[in-house]
Amino acid sequence: MIIGFLALFSAILNKKWGFFLALLASLSLIIFRIILLKRPPVATLTESALFIATILLALTFYIPPLGRTLSVIAAFLLFISPLSNDAIAPVLRSSFWLTIHVLTIVTSYGLLLGASAVGHYLVLKKNDLLAKALERLLSWGTILLIIGTLLGGVWASTSWGRFWDWDPKETWAFVSISLYLMGLHAWHYGKIEIFGLSFFAILASNSITFTWYGLNILINKGLHTYGFTDAPVIPYLGFLFAELLFCSFIGCKRLIAKK
Question: What's the chain's average pLDDT?
Fold first, then answer.
């Protein structure tokens, strides 16, 4: 909560030293938890939210025009993630797989949520520098998402005896990857402009949030749902509704402009 308030405070100030202070605090907590737990702190919703928030705070230095927005998103993630000291599931007690699978996946989430923030800006206003940043964030985020998903399949094979079984989490990971690949391929082959790529970044990020957060609190089925069921539902549904309104507004505005 303290780091969430620091992130919100830095957004209000909109100063580099404020973003740096929030980033330093989140990094310090991550390092402290690594020393204390002797594993990467990404096994629960709270821990993964902290890690994603840290990536977003780091991106404030890569994308200064959106520093305030990224910091607010980081604060929101920290505020809605529940505090939990419950023991983690036995399958998650592998520092090796937490490092190479979960850490890779969570890093991709941070980059792709950052890309979504850029996408929201670009569907409203053109900016060549941010357009390049969007492409980089989407490319690296998608690459890490694919690698992390494949590594998860290897882990599933060793833990559960199968590589892929269309578990709800696995299914939505596939949906998310497909959306990002569709957008990036359409962009690289000139089928869509930067507006279309930005719109894809927004839509696909909602799939990411559902894969990471929504599945565990709304469906709560499958082998991947542990430690997340105490998370608040209303803020997430409010976020999805706001995104739906925003995308509908932008889509209608674009159609009217073309006509």
Answer: 85
